[in-house]
Amino acid sequence: MCCRFQRAKPIIIDPGLYMTKKTDVFWITQRRSVPTAFKLFTGSAWMALSRPFIDYSIWGWDNLPRNALMYYSSFISSPEGYFHTVICNAKEFSNTTVNSDLHFISWDKPPKQHPHHLNLADFNRMVSSNAPFARKFPRDNPVLDKIDAELLFRVEGLFVPGGWCTGSAENGSDPCSIIGDITVLNPGHGAKRVEQLIKSLLSSENFRPKQCK
């Protein structure tokens, strides 16, 4: 997360807030100053929020969540800044942030507005990143079939098998047609990769130094 003043000064009007049909936003010629009551932060639109922080955002007992919400109502791509700004300006929560959205994303150099579509050539990098999620994928991309077959062991047309599926997967049959102990949870290779990622994110060199930067 980092400060992005160039995204904060423009003012927009989003007709989608009060119209039934989606239209483009209107850009206002005037520009506003950067707020002084709180510091702006931006980051990924994908995040996991704790229950205590959600309670704080709803009740807003010190008015920060409400003030930030009013500011971001005319902000382009507000999901990439609102919660980041609130949590990093709240003393009781700023030291709880983890600077990762658990996604593998491949950007062009220099970065463009959107990341490039992932394909088979990105498969090994996706796996080695240990990230449980990735984007973007074009429609009918063969790499999705490769992920299903080699990482999820999913047969086409069926669900991803869990540890409670005790049937045979031979000849394309559904291993979950026979259900064993539904409480069984057997961590696979993917779980081990996520474990390595979490350990890295919470390591002394990555956790505290990268909070709200």
Sum this structure up briefly.
This protein is an alpha+beta fold. The protein has helices spanning 5-8, 51-59, 64-72, 82-89, 123-128, 142-152, 189-201, and strands at 10-13, 26-31, 103-105, 133-135.
Label this structure with key terms.
glycosyltransferase, 213 residues, GLCAT14A/B/C, transferase, 8% strand, 7 helices, membrane, single chain
Structural notes for this entry:
The protein has 213 residues and is an alpha+beta fold. It has a domain at 2-89. It contains seven helices and four strands; from the N terminus they run αββαααβαβαα. It has helices at 5-8, 51-59, 64-72, 82-89, 123-128, 142-152, 189-201; strands spanning 10-13, 26-31, 103-105, 133-135. The strands form two sheets. The protein has a two-stranded antiparallel sheet with strand order 1-2. α5 links the parallel β3 and β4. The protein is globular and about 65 Å long. The model has no long low-confidence stretch (mean pLDDT 88).
